[in-house]
Amino acid sequence: MTTDSTAAWTAAFRSAVVSPHESIDLFELRGFDGHTLRQIIRLDGGGTALRIRLSNRYGKEPLHIGGAHLARRTEGSGIDSGTDTPVRFAGTEDITIPVGEEIISDPIDGPYAAGDELAVTLWLPDDTGLSTYSAVPLRTGWAVPGNALTADTLDGTEGLEELATRHYITGADVLAPEGTRIAVAFGDSWFEGTGTTHDTDHRFPDLLNQRLRDAGHTGWVVNQGISANRLLTDEIGEHALARLERDALTVPGVTHVLIHFGLNDLGIPGQEAYPEPAPIPTAADLIAGFTTLADRIHAAGLTATATTVGPYKDTVYEGYSTPEGIAVAREVNDWIRSADSPFDSYADFAAAVADPADPDRIHDDHDSGDGLHVNDAGAQALADSVDLATLKI
After folding, report:
1. At residue 283, what are phi and psi to the nearest 5 degrees?
2. Whole-angstrom Cα distance, residue 267 to residue 273?
3. Is the overall model pTM greater than 0.90, yes or no?
4. How many CB atoms lie within 10 A of CB 313?
5. Which residues contact 323 (CB under 8 A, 6 or more apart)?
6. DSSP string for residues in 86-151
7. Is 198 in a helix, a strand, or coil?
8. CB 177 within 8 A of CB 46
9. Of 139, 176, 267, 387, whose CB neighbour count within 10 A is largest?
10. What is the pLDDT of residues 29-77, one digit of tens each?
């Protein structure tokens, strides 16, 4: 490929992954054996070349990939065959990823632009065991028996399965102008997008990116949300303090980190113990965790923006919402809004989507239907609550 001394590798897509070996089992766990996977990624920013990241972080066995291809997506599982190209890793197409490791492909010439939809197709000839996966990508993927790496479409193939989870893909980087600045949306389901419409890119980071583009910003936001993720406790996914460096601080091009945590710390213990009560973190516990996050983000030379803990009173998930948890959320939000907060700025998610008549619950217009997650309109309200000047991108 051609090189550009004024360009630098910059994250253009991210997909935070979790282990299939956790004790909390909320999502479909999958392994593959003699299957082709075709999965769609949508770029948040563009550049002159692209490289793909694949992970066997949580696999129990080495992951054999018999081949990988990249192509422009048309519709459904279809690709533009004229753009279909092999993805190589250190010059080879047949690779094995050791247990616990991630690999980065050789560069693939572009150009690529924000909004490009790309199909990543993987041929998995051997038993993979349970896969490293992303829980709620809100992007349909497909699996079929046999080697269909170069198929124009998988639609109508015998044995075709639709996948609601994403497997092995953790990101894509583009060769962007040096100095391109990006933010990482580092948080839970309110970032990953649970509750928004599948296959439409109406998640909070997508809509914030649209605002940035409309305002003429050259930087963008990548999404490192994990649904049911917590600030202080593992599962779903490693807790925020454990995954901060990998999923935020070392993301290529990052200058700014957006934070949304706390809901699951307060809600999951009661949901897991229901109908029995369960201890939850105190406001002091959460404030200490948030302060550590802010301090580590600042130590890395990055800007830190908090978002207030979203409302969740009357959620349909039994045991999740308790008066004690609601009170802690209010106290933490008051702290985030105060001069005592160590964050550089904040976006008031709670105020953006709350019912004015009952601010501890999501307004009906913004509720996905479960009282815990926002719908498309709610995600737009969250995006609108961010002061673009604070992002510095």
Report:
1. -60, -40
2. 10
3. yes
4. 20
5. none
6. E--BTTBSSEEEPTT-EEEPPPEEEEE-TT-EEEEEEEE-S---BPPEES---S-EEEEES--TT-
7. coil
8. no
9. 176
10. 999 999 999 999 999 999 999 999 999 999 999 999 999 999 999 999 9
